[in-house]
Write a structure and sequence with these properties.
Layout (H helix, E strand, L loop, with lengths): L3 H9 L23 H8 L9 E5 L5 H10 L2 E6 L2 H13 L6 E5 L13 E4 L5 H17 L5 E5 L3 H7 L5 E8 L12 E7 L4 H7 L1
Parallel strand pairs: 1-2, 1-4, 2-3, 4-5
Antiparallel strand pairs: 5-7, 6-7
Helix pairs in contact: 2-3
């Protein structure tokens, strides 16, 4: 059987395998890379292309960024708060075949101002709902400052994430990519749920401020 994880790492000329929970806490969850088989399915969905820029929240060692830039030709930006793991992503970038299409930001996601070029956001349960709320506020602010299509992609979303997302008026369900067949057990959480930012009427937004 082909080891797809190591095979893709070799092809991309990076090292992203292995989990890491050394600096995990209540607010920041352990590093666990998205399986390459899931990323293959996302890349094949045609939801990401050369004209897109994707933020990978809690990017870890940069797997999502390197893979999607390579497969879709999109620009990718990875954000990582753990300086030790961030350095792994920076080191990987030096050898990665995706080259200049990937970049990494060291800092806290909730403090990052979303650039107007960003129109895709990826999450694999990187942090607590408390942080997610602040991140979503920044994404929504960026949308209103520069209206554009923004898709939010949540792989293996937690119940807490889903409960919160259902309360956000500015987002609506857009699509989903099932990945349950890729693994044993047919786990329904093995899905990429996709939401879209939508504009509220001005009065509705003003009433929430």
């Amino acid at each position: 059987m082909i080891d797809i994880e190591n095979s893709w790492d070799l092809r991309l000329k990076v090292q992203t395998t292995g989990n890491d929970d050394k600096n995990a806490d209540y607010y920041h969850f352990p590093y666990e890379p998205t399986p390459y088989s899931v990323l293959e399915r996302l890349a094949d969905s045609d939801l990401i292309g050369a004209s897109d820029t994707l933020i990978d929240y809690g990017c870890g060692k940069g797997r999502v960024d390197f893979f999607l830039s390579f497969r879709t030709d999109a620009e990718t930006v990875g954000i990582e708060y753990d300086d030790r793991i961030y350095q792994c992503a920076v080191d990987n970038r030096k050898t990665a075949v995706s080259g200049e299409k990937t970049q990494f930001i060291y800092g806290r996601a909730e403090e990052y101002t979303v650039p107007e070029c960003v129109n895709r956001c990826y999450f694999f349960n990187p942090f607590s709902v408390e942080i997610l709320k602040k991140v979503m506020a920044r994404i929504i602010d960026s949308y209103y400052e520069h209206p554009r299509e923004i898709l939010l992609m949540f792989y293996y979303p937690s119940a807490e994430y889903l409960s919160y997302l259902m309360t956000v008026d500015e987002i609506e369900y857009y699509d989903e990519i099932s990945c349950a067949d890729l693994f044993d057990g047919k786990n329904k959480r093995e899905t990429i749920l996709i939401f879209k930012i939508v504009e509220l009427f001005c009065n509705d937004r003003n009433n929430q401020i």
